[in-house]
Amino acid sequence: MAQNVLRMVTNDTFPEFIPWISEEESKKLIQSTYSPEMDNDVIIYPNPARNVLTIQLEQESEADLLLVIADMQGRLAMKVIIPAYTNKMELDISALPNSVYYCLFEADNKFIADKKLIIIR
Cβ contacts of residue 19 below 8 Å, gap of 6+? Predict the structure, then answer.
C-alpha cells in the first residue's frame, strides 16, 4: 500500500497566514470564515498522540486541504498540505513537543473543521 506523501509548506507559500495573532483576532477570524459542514467528517487519532497522527477524511476533497497546527498561544507549529482525493494519511509529529494544539483544516480559504490534539510522550 502506497503511503501518501506530505508536502510541508512554509510561510512563504501562504504569505497571508499570520502565525502569531491575538486570541481575540484569532476567534474573529475563525468565526468569520468557519464552515462547520465537514467538522464531523474529519477524524484525528490517536488522541492523545505520541509520534504519528492519523488523519481520516470521511469525504474526499476535490481540492488540496491545508492543515494548520497551532499551539494554545496561537503560534504556528506546523502546516501541511493534504492532497486532493486523500481520505487517510499519517503525519509525523515527532518534532512537536508535548502540549495541546489546535488542528485547523482549511479549504477554499474557509476553515472547514477544527480539532484539539494532545501530544504526550
Answer: 11, 70, 74, 75, 76
pTM of the predicted structure, to 2 decimals: 0.71
Tell me how far apart the 2 most distant CA atoms of the chain are, in Å: 44
| pLDDT score, position 38 | 63
- Buried b / exposed e over 76-104, threshold 16 CB at 10 Å, is ebbbbbbeeebeebebebeebeeeebbbb
pLDDT at 59: 84
Is the pLDDT at 39 greater than 90? The verdict is no
Per the CB < 8 A criterion, the answer to whether 115 and 100 are in contact is: no
In a domain, 92, yes or no: yes
How far is residue 94's CA from residue 58's CA, in Å, rounded to a whole number? 25
The enclosing domain of 46 has a CATH number of 2.60.40.3080
Query: Does residue 1 form part of some domain?
Result: no
Where in the sequence is the domain holding 111, given as residue range(s)?
7-15+22-119
Torsion of CA 32, 34, 36, 39, to 10 degrees: -160
